[in-house]
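We modelled each protein-ligand pair independently. The example shown here corresponds to the magnesium ion entry; the chain sequence is given first, followed by the ligand as SMILES.
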Amino acid sequence: MVVKKLTLENFRNYEHETFEFSEGLNILTGKNAQGKTNCAEAVFYLCTGAPLRIRHDRQLIRSGAEFARISAETEGRYGKVSLAAVIFETKRELYVNGNKLSRSVDFLGNMRSVFFSPGELRLIQDGPEERRRFLNLSISQTSRDYCTALVRYRRILDQRNNLLKEHDVSLIAETLPVWDEQLAQYAARIAVRRREFLSSLSVLAADIHAELTDGAEHLLLSPDREYRGEEGEVAERLLKELKGSRERDIRLGFTSVGPHRDDIRITIDGTDARGYASQGQARTAALSMKLAEVEIFRKLSGEPPVLVLDDVLSELDLPRRKKLLGHVAGVQCILTCTHAERVLSGAEGKKIRIQGGKIVRGTGV
Ligand SMILES: Nc1ncnc2c1ncn2[C@@H]1O[C@H](COP(=O)(O)OP(=O)(O)O)[C@@H](O)[C@H]1O
Ligand SMILES: [Mg+2]
């Protein structure tokens, strides 16, 4: 699947601009703070329905405007699909081929992307939240079922957590079993999907990491807790755990077991990468995970996703840069950098120069 055209209206620092992308490498250049990442973020938004690093959609709306609009024309194995997201301060409208969707989950899977930026180092170095976010966004792009389970799980979890803070003991005793039953069902679905995803990701990431390091390092990704068996069995066991942790949860005021607490263990040559990997090792490990994600999307959907490489090339040494660009041959790539000449080592691509939220046209790059 490729994105042919992307139009941004009142999105971040763009007033109105249309990008026409090639099916191969697209190179967005420009000085800092001109709108390169903003463009990359718009692509990400159309794939996930989620803003990149912020909690609220409203930051995406150009200052002074009432709403933002991102629209794209894509082409893939099922033909041409047009997508649009209209972002208001407190709501969003999503469109596929001009039809407004009533459920936002139906927006997922029309376009897929893998996003890699220097911030992705957090995947290796930060706490479990970053890795759960990675799993959630990645699996949601290939499974609406996962996304639905996740939304419902979070809703019930919130309700359970609110209940745990209640002072009315009989209300807790009466209602908790109802929440626990439902929570365990969705938790099991999430856990099993994550287990499947992670086992594919681990194999692919290990291969890619070995390639990027010329066989010098072994990367291993594994769940920090195992959920064995089928979804039904996992649900039963989780229900038991929830029951077992009720008293503790009431004391703590929150739910202490379940997939919202899980993590991915990442080791390089047997050593925990978090806290021990050097900056360079962490960067390569994060890149390996992201390229593995490209392969998973390709495998699951029969076509590669759009790969967005935001400002990462300059941080990799020349051999890795070459390997990366070689690896993604045949994948549509949107790459941003400040100095195209310096980082591209001769790679050919469509160059688009951006200045102040506008494409600079007609001057050559
Ligand atoms: N909602 C918004 N309205 C107007 N400008 C914005 C908005 N959000 C971000 N910007 C501007 O976008 C610019 C940053 O763009 P960005 O894409 O991150 O730059 P870069 O080219 O360095 O990747 C900043 O000047 C910032 O002020
Ligand atoms: Mg940027």
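The domain at 1-112+305-365 is CATH 3.40.50.300 (Rossmann fold).
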